[in-house]
Amino acid sequence: MALKKNVLLCVSGGIAVYKAAALTSKLVQANFNVKVMMTESATEFVSPLTFQSLSRNPVFTNTFDEKDPNVIAHIDLADWADLLLVAPATANTIGKLANGIADDMVTTTILATKAPVWIAPAMNVNMYDNPAVKRNIAVLFDDGYRFLEPTDGYLACGYLGKGRLEEPEIITELVKDFFTYSNQFLKGLSILVTGGPTRENLDPVRFFSNRSSGKMGFAIAEVAAKLGAQVTLVSGPSSLPSPSNVKVVRVESAQEMYESVLESFPKTDVVIKSAAVADYRPSESFSEKMKKQEGTLTIEFERTIDILKTLGTMKADKLLIGFAAETGSIEEYAKKKLYAKNLDLVVANNVNEAGAGFQGDTNIVTFYRKDHTLRKLPILSKKEVAFILLQEVKQLRGELK
Questions:
Q1: 3-class SS at 48?
Q2: Vertex 388: Cα angle to 195 and 323 (nearest 5)
Q3: What pLDDT, on the 0 to 100 scale, is given for residue 73?
Q4: Largest pairwise CA distance in the chain
Q5: Angle of CA points 4, 66, 91, to nearest 5°
Q6: 8 Å CB contact between 165 and 16
Q7: What is the pLDDT of residue 67?
Q8: Tens of pLDDT along 176-191?
Q9: Domain ranges of the chain
Q10: Paired strand residues for 272
Q11: Which residues are catalytic?
């Protein structure tokens, strides 16, 4: 089991200190070790006892209050931290750090650490726009500090504008991502992901499709990009927003997905095909809306191109991964797909199983490999499944070399 990471939360004085209390709670719930240090003015807004209760650790407010005679507190904390987070960061604290001033517990510890330092400003909109503050932020940015920009909204002073401390939930997710994806083990790889359903038109108002939301494919693309890969996502119709740092190609039909995938395939190292592509399409598509008729309706279908099988015939040294969404005989169908389509790995699930179907945010999958090994995962979020799958990609790439 991986060791819990240490987050040192540095709280400076402003009304947003109440959000820092919520942030402490969120970080602890996310399984981080959290210690808190406060400036003197921060204690005027929220008592140290609040942060002690939430973090389950002593709170540090005075450079000269040495709680353990065996260590020097600010040096010990500076060495202990895997990440220092200044939230909220006032104009005063930002100014001190930019000019190397160490006159309290917070500034002294930050100047003594070699850990990454993140600064989350919170102040009046006019203060944030002040040239001196902007200049100090620029200095710190050039020195390697990372900033979490404040958001727009109603401020405690009554102004509307940028200056609100970023929400604790968002900061917590950013911290989680930092530790999860700091090892960019996919850097240098080009990965092609497909996701979502396809639509096969019958007429201008009707089409045949399936229940896929695209959440699994989008999660894989997002996580792969965070792990350093150059990612192209070919997506069927989906309402999901495009992941950051991912080239997204939106298509509709199986034919369009086939053409787009083939265009990107030569420049790709790894293909992860999680899209639920239609196996059949209407043999005839009408340009005008079909009118209701008496009696039954018979529609003739024809096969679409099997994209995955086509890629299997031309894969060479590329890594090819397919998904198998089944409702029974999971292992039988997964293994059949693995060998019939010349894949390196099949990710299979039973869409009838609670927590593993379409539309949801979780999945329950099993990995089937050509070396006859399999790996069953418990119910996990689709991002967690994506991360573990991409670890498999790293391992398989190593075996191919």
A1: helix
A2: 35
A3: 78
A4: 91
A5: 75
A6: yes
A7: 75
A8: 989 988 888 999 999 9
A9: 6-180, 184-285+300-400
A10: 193, 321
A11: 157
> CATH assignment of 184-285+300-400?
3.40.50.10300
pLDDT digits (tens, 9 = 90+) for 231-250: 999 999 999 999 989 999 99
Q: How far apart are CA 116 and CA 135, in angstroms?
A: 21
Phi, psi at 378, each rounded to 5°: -75, 180
**Could you tell me if 303 and 240 are in contact, meaning their C-beta atoms sit under 8 angstroms apart?**
no
Give the whole-number percent of the chain exceeding pLDDT 70: 96
Q: Where are the beta strands (DSSP E) in 90-143?
A: 117-121
Q: For residue 19, how many other CB atoms are within 10 A of its CB? A: 22
Q: Which residues are paired to 346 by β-bridges?
A: 322, 368
> Counting beta carbons within 10 angstroms of the beta carbon of residue 214, is it exposed (0 to 12), middle (13 to 18) or buried (19 or more)?
buried
CB 362 within 8 A of CB 382: yes
Output the six-digit token pair for 360: 């949801």
Helix (H) or strand (E) holding 282: strand 280-282
Over the Cα atoms of the chain, what is R_g?
A: 27
- For 116, residues 6+ apart whose C-beta sits below 8 A from its C-beta are 83, 84, 146, 178
Tell me: pLDDT of 127 over 80. yes
Assigned token pair, 46: 């929220």
Got the DSSP string for 156-200?
Answer: TTS-EEEEEPPPHHHHHHHHHHHHHHSS-TTTT-EEEEEESB--E
Same fold, 6-180 and 184-285+300-400: yes
Q: pLDDT tens for residues 361-382? A: 999 999 999 888 999 999 999 9
| Distance set, CA 220 to CA 215, 230, 303, 334 (Å) | 9, 12, 28, 20
Distance CA 15, CA 69 (A): 34
Instruction: Enter the pTM of the model.
Output: 0.74
Give the model's pLDDT for residue 39.
Answer: 95
- Give the count of alpha carbons within 13 A of 324, CB side only: 24
CATH superfamily of 6-180: Flavin prenyltransferase-like (3.40.50.1950)
Q: Is 303 exposed, middle or buried (0-12, 13-18, 19+ CB in 10 A)?
A: exposed
